[in-house]
Amino acid sequence: MEYYIGLITMSAIQALLGLSVYVTVLAGRVSFGQHGFALIGGYMAGVATAVWGWHLAPALVLGMLASGLVGLVVGYPALRIRGVYLAVASVAFAEICRNVVQNLFYYRQEVVGGLVRKIGPVGHEGFRHISYFYDHGFTREMVMGVILGVLALTTLVVWVLDRSQLGRRLRAISEDELAAQTAGINVAWLTTLAFGLGAAIAGLSGGLYAHYLTFASHETFTILMGVLAVAYVLVGGTANVVGPLLGVAFFTAITEGLRPLQEYRVIIYGALIVAAMLVRPYGIIDHKLLVRLRQWATFLPRAKVRAEARVDATR
Amino acid sequence: MLRVESLTKQFGGLVALSGVDLTLEGGRIMGLIGPNGSGKTTLINTVTGVFPPTAGRVYLGDLDITPLPAHRRARLGIARTFQNVKLWTRLTVWENLWIVSQPSHRRLPGLGPDRQRERRLAEILAWVGLWERRNDLAGSLSFGEQRRLELARALAAEPRVLLLDEPAAGLSMGELEDLTRFLEQLRAQGLAILLVEHVLELVMNIADRIAVLNFGHKIAEGTPDQVREDPQVQEAYLGMRKRSAQPAGEPDDARP
Amino acid sequence: MWLDLVQQGISGFLVGSTYALIAIGFTMVWGVMRRLNLAYGAAALGAAYVGFWIYRLAPDLTPAILVLAAMGSGIVIGFLMDLVCFRWLPKEYELAPLASTLGALIIAEEVINLRTEGYPVSFPEIVDKVFYVGRLYFRLDHIVIFGACMVMVAGLYYLLFRTRLGLAIRGVSQQVVAAQLMGMNPNKTNAITFMLTGMLAGAAGALSVMAIGTGTSALAMTFTLRGLSAAVIGGLGSIPGAIVGGLALGIIEAEALRVFGIGYRDVFTNLALLAILVFRPQGLMGVRLAQ
Question: Does A60 score more than 50 pLDDT?
Fold first, then answer.
């Protein structure tokens, strides 16, 4: 039971990071460096609770603000970069984050049971004793509950965003930027916004991760993490917010199903990605499937197009 | 309504437009013809703001819009269609229009559905005959339907100026008649229309005035009859006809 | 101070030649297929390891066997990668092969990890000499690598510009449809491109690891990042660019190490990369592309 709680909690955190990739993919940009923003959010939120004594919620918000702000700042020059170049740039950015954090020292000292503890980022050693959950008596079930709750809320927000005019415009930008520009869509502003939003969500994921592990360092936010986040979205499908969630579920289910092969877990991840691209290159939920699903579930409104708005054709 | 003064556009060593003057008036259709490579699409691109001109200015009414970026010009009422249909294929027909349109005036957002705006878009869709297809992905439309959607999308932004880049290419006779009818109705509504076309029958039939470009220069302007008689125009086209059939049109996003 | 600068510059320059080899692989696949093979660095390391395991069967022979075996396995790995990550995926969608090569990268790195149980592996040295010119010292093995790289690049150029095969590759890279009409088979040329770059990867990987001395699975990511950065700095699609980019990256890295120390070296290198991407995305020698 313990084991499954841990599994679900980790999956939820991964799913959050996947959602952050999804938001930037909406604008047509694939960022492999979201773990960099997660790192920023994690450290920021950790400092807030462990060093300054804040409560979790405002701390997480602060983490989101910090990473979101960096996302906006970084997103603007990134406008001109797309595709492959952005992939490289995003990884370079995340690497910079990881390196900077290795040189960061900001801690207070505490004596616990005769031993001196350093609470805060301690350069290369990382950031230990992010013990908010432990100090406030959260059980593992409660932590899982909190994280699942945050995931549900974020999914809802992203879903609403996706269906809104903003979301549809982002998709238009990703498909044909020139047409969008000449049709009156402010491409620069919307894309930067999407970047900032994705970064904020990544920061949220990082903040929760840091508190869950009670530890954060340049080694907990690895390139593999950033890469897998993208994989979840690409495998699950970019047509709908459910895509990244499906991606995470898919990966988790298969690795769990192949539990006796635990030590090959990472290879299985890689193989899953390769296999998924061979079988469904556009993801599990691609646009065509989405349309067909909507046709079945006709009680779900497609867009608010009311029948009474129809006017007889003048043809 | 839309005025272009001494418009010049140079790409490195290539002069695509050179000192072009043009005026579009509301309720009139101005045809723009010329051999391939004469700068027709470049003109549209410069007017809509895809790239800045090397020299010259663009005026919308009294406003000098030359320094404005593309999306601002669109908001001010300039719309265009593309030679190669540039729809958002992964969005539905309805969404293609919706994201281009603006919320109705004097409305507070979030107070329930914007019925005025929906009605407007529904009218446009019905007018081009795509209402039944409103929930289908734009990518699933036939070629003729996509052309109509391009036009509808341009209209969804409530433009005052409409720039059409070879809308007749690839259309059947019946579709051509529909297009002619659409254009006449749009003209009657007071839009200023620029019609760039190779299909000369359409242009000669429907345009009030025609301008002719060749190698980036405007070599003639006048009524269809005047242009038809103009010796310079004939020579430009004759020269082209001698070189036999060429692939149609210049690329839309002709950039260096 | 000047001595240090020049010294670091020289060793950076020499090390940069290995980056250049890997960069050439990235840039060629990009040039021919407009796609990025993210697993290329891992392939280089994988080929190096296979070469090592083959070498271990007869360690009394010269270490050159390692390099040759690595090149051979690189050819095979390259072919497989083309098949699984590119040929069987839709041509118009660039994200699918991107994800797929990522998967391959993950697989390759982990396979090495498991096979060696996470322990670093000692690779034999190429040569163990160092010599001095005035007060500057040169590592002979680095010079050998540099020389080997130049030889391979020369060979590559000969292939691309003096043979029919090379013509086919260049033709397909510039105009796929026209090339097809002329009877060139893009699938075949792509496969050959992959096998060629695989061979280069094997050589680059083997030589690099031998120069470093020990192999670990983490090198896969290092090779990938360095090689990709070098290719981007020099300009994707340009082979001279890849060479220049690799050498430049080597120098930048070495100088950054000297000035900033190991802590901030990578920050500086990455910032340099970002600067290039933002201000001159076509790289130092690339042609302005419409993206």
Answer: yes
Q: Is the pTM of this model over 0.90?
A: no
pLDDT at site C26:
87
Residue A175 within any structural domain of the chain: yes
CATH of residue C66's domain is 1.10.3470
> Percentage of chain A with pLDDT > 70?
94
Dihedrals φ, ψ of A13, to 5°?
A: -65, -40
Q: One-letter amino acid identity for A287?
A: H
Which run of H or of E encompasses B213? strand B209-214
Residue B32 domain-assigned (yes or no): yes
C232 neighbourhood in chain A, CB within 8 Å: 85, 88
**What tokens appear for A144 in the block?**
């899982």
User: Does some domain include residue B255?
Assistant: no
Print the domain residue range for B77.
Answer: 2-242
Greater model confidence, A42 or A77: A42
> Hey, CA dihedral for B87, B88, B90, B96, is it positive or negative?
negative
Q: Which domain holds residue A124?
A: 2-222
Residue B127 to residue A315, Cβ atoms within 8 A:
yes
Query: Could you tell me if residue A142 is inside a domain?
Result: yes
Residue with tokens 């954060």: A216
What's the length of chain C? 291
Nearest to B5 by CA among B60, B68, B78, B81: B60
Residue B250's pLDDT band, with cuts at 50, 70 and 90, is very low
Answer yes or no: do A235 and C221 touch at CB < 8 A: no
Number of domains making up chain C: 1
B139 shares contact with chain C (CB less than 8 Å): no
B28-33 vs B209-214, strand pairing mode: parallel
Within 8 A of B177 by CB-CB distance, chain A residues are none
Check residue B163 and give left, alpha or beta (phi > 0: left; psi -120 to 50: alpha): beta
- The per-residue pLDDT for range B150-160, each reduced to its tens digit, is 999 999 988 99
Least confident range from B82-91, C58-67, C222-231: namely: C58-67
- Supply the ipTM of this predicted assembly: 0.82
Name the least confident of A82-96, A103-117, B28-42, C127-141. Answer: C127-141
Please state the domain count of chain B: 1
Work out the average pLDDT over B108-131.
81
Pairing of strands B209-214, B161-165: unpaired
How large is the average pLDDT for residues A182-198?
Answer: 93
CB pairs under 8 A between B and C: 3
pLDDT score recorded for residue B109: 62
Instruction: Indicate whether B256 belongs to any domain.
Output: no
Q: By the 8 A CB rule, do C49 and C208 touch?
A: no
On the question of pLDDT at A270 being above 90, the answer is: no
Judge whether B123 is closer than 8 Å to chain C, CB to CB.
no
The CA distances from residue C201 to A142, C110, C125, C126, in Å, are 50, 18, 19, 17
Residue in A203, A238, A246, A247 with CA at minimum distance from that of residue A221: A203
Q: Is residue B46 part of a domain?
A: yes
B211: enclosing H helix or E strand: strand B209-214
Exposed / middle / buried, residue A107 (Cβ in 10 Å: 0-12, 13-18, 19+): buried
Which CATH number covers residue B36? 3.40.50.300
Is the CB of residue B253 less than 8 Å away from at least one CB of chain C? yes
Q: Above 50 in pLDDT, residue B105?
A: yes
Interchain contact, A187 vs B75, CB within 8 Å: no
The dihedrals phi and psi of B33, each to the nearest 5 degrees, come to: -125, 175
Is the pLDDT confidence value at B249 over 70?
no
Tokens read off for B56: 């010259």
Please state the domain count of chain A. 1
Contacts of A2 (CB under 8 A, 6+ apart): A140
The answer to whether B127 contacts A175, with C-beta atoms less than 8 Å apart, is no
Query: Residue C36 is part of which domain span?
Result: 2-279
Q: Is the pLDDT of residue C185 over 60?
A: yes
Paired tokens of A201: 């969500």
Tokens at residue A309, please?
A: 């708005």
